[in-house]
Amino acid sequence: ADRAQALVGFGFRPGSAKEKMDILLGLVGKDYVMTVADRAQARSIVVFKHDEDKIFELDSKIIMATAGPQGDRANFAEYIQRNIQLYKYRNDLPLTTKGAANFTRTELATFLRKSPYQVNLLMAGHDKKVGPSLYYMDYLGSMHKMDFGAHGYGSYFCLSIFDRYFKKDMSLEQGKELMQKCIKELQTRFLINCPKFICKIVTAEGTKVIDI
Fold it and tell me: Which terminus of the chain has a smaller tally of CB atoms within 10 A, N or C?
């Protein structure tokens, strides 16, 4: 309780509405992992644009979807991105998705006690031995490997759809169909307008943007 009061004292408000307004979705398929994010960039009651890319490419086969205030999202994602690249150059060996997720979780937990970042994350990647994987992280530094995940108010609508329709080893077409169900539900039921989404997948060949 004392630590929470201290965090609030220097402007940190746990569970702020901004990080919940951003919508992140992710699922693991047969030979791919897919992430989807809304493209709105907003502050207060104003939407500035609808072409924001909230999914950062950390490495050739690792991506990270981010939710939260624009400054925190961009600064933290770029910090993680640069450090993962630095590790690769120093050791002549890229980090695995699990390694990158653990590093990111540790940094979130460290900053939580100094200058917290209000960011929620979905990290997705594909490794030669492990295959596709998805890691769920929040601003408090918790982390869990999942078959599917969601962040923001959109999760209130989409988690039940994932529970109902998600199956192990879904094909790419089945994964796209499931994401389309989620997006349709959001555009029908969610109070906030969500006209555009971006979808990225990671396979053994690398990362690419696909239509959804």
Answer: N
Q: Residue 54 and residue 66: Cα distance in Å, rounded?
A: 6
| Among 198, 147, 182, 183, residue whose Cα is nearest residue 33 | 147
Rg, Å, the chain Cα set: 17
DSSP the chain: -HHHHHHHHTT--TT-HHHHHS-EEEEE-SS-EEEEEE--EEETTEEEES----EEEEETTEEEEEES-HHHHHHHHHHHHHHHHHHHHHHTSPPPHHHHHHHHHHHHHHHHTTS----EEEEEEEETTTEEEEEEE-TTS-EEEESEEEESTHHHHHHHHHHHH--TT--HHHHHHHHHHHHHHHHHH-SS----EEEEEEETTEEEEE--
Relative to beta strand 33-38, strand 24-28 is: antiparallel
pLDDT tens column, 148-200: 999 999 999 999 999 999 999 999 999 999 999 999 999 999 998 889 999 99
**Which tens digit of pLDDT belongs to each residue from 80-89?**
999 999 999 9
CATH class of 24-210: alpha beta
Domain boundaries, given as residue ranges, for the chain: 24-210
The Cα 170–Cα 40 span in angstroms is 29
**Terminus-to-terminus CA distance in the chain, angstroms?**
43
Looking at residue 62, its amino acid is I
Cα–Cα distance measured from residue 205 to residue 161, given in angstroms and rounded to the nearest whole number: 29
